[in-house]
Write a structure and sequence with these properties.
Largest sheet: 6 strands, mixed
Shape: globular
Helix content: 25-40%
Low-confidence stretches: none
Strand order of the largest sheet: 6-3-5-4-9-10
Number of helices: 8
Mean pLDDT: 96
Structural class: alpha/beta
Distance between the termini: 48 Å
């Protein structure tokens, strides 16, 4: 078994070269690539058998974030409360981000994960990375490498085993709407916990 630092170096090199990598995050295992490389994104879609759905993006810094999105001041404030962590925030995408990543939608889901392996991978690759779960479309999101379908695992250029993920379920997805927070998808952070956390900072959750 290769040392983690060697695997990370291989994975980062693969991403820079248009490859696809399976890696752990704080939520579930992801299958990712350089989001600015359309052919690599198409490979991820083929592996997952996924069409017509947007892909989230993982970042490691503000510099990464502004390459893929145009955050407002309020969104940046919200991010400073919730990141790093298991909450994806939907923001306006940049023109440079290929439309295939967002399935032609004007927004993109972004987050900074609370996982040292994924953060170091992003840093070493020198680019934000696609953060979609390493499953077949419609299947369960894998909390360990053993749960990643062999079809997906076998199609990746590099696979990193980081053990069982901390949360074991997908991120919670939110969006700012008129100054309030809309929960698009409830995941690792439940609505009640999110409401308590944001209430002290002056935010409220929209009733669904």
């Amino acid at each position: 078994m290769k040392p983690l630092k060697h695997l990370l170096a291989e994975a980062a090199e693969a991403i820079r070269g248009g490859g696809v990598v399976i890696y752990p995050t704080d939520t579930v295992y992801g299958v990712g690539c350089d989001p600015f490389n359309v052919k690599a994104v198409e490979r991820v879609m083929e592996l997952k058998r996924r069409e017509g759905k947007p892909h989230p993006i993982l970042c490691s810094s503000l510099e990464d974030l502004i390459r893929v999105s145009r955050p407002t001041e309020d969104e940046l404030r919200l991010a400073s409360i919730l990141w790093p962590g298991p909450v994806t925030i939907v923001m306006e995408k940049t023109d440079e981000l290929p439309s295939i990543v967002t399935s032609n939608l004007p927004n993109v889901g972004v987050r900074i994960p609370a996982n040292l392996i994924s953060l170091e991978l992003i840093r070493m690759a020198g680019t934000p990375i696609i953060g979609t779960s390493a499953n077949l479309s419609g299947g369960a999101s894998p909390a360990s490498l053993d749960e990643v379908p062999q079809e997906v695992r076998g199609g990746a250029d590099v696979v990193i085993d980081g053990g069982v993920t901390y949360y074991g379920e997908p991120s919670t997805v939110i969006q700012l709407v008129g100054g309030a927070v809309k929960v698009v998808r409830e995941g690792a952070v439940k609505k009640a916990d999110l409401s308590k956390r944001l209430h002290t900072r002056g935010y409220s959750l929209l009733e669904s």
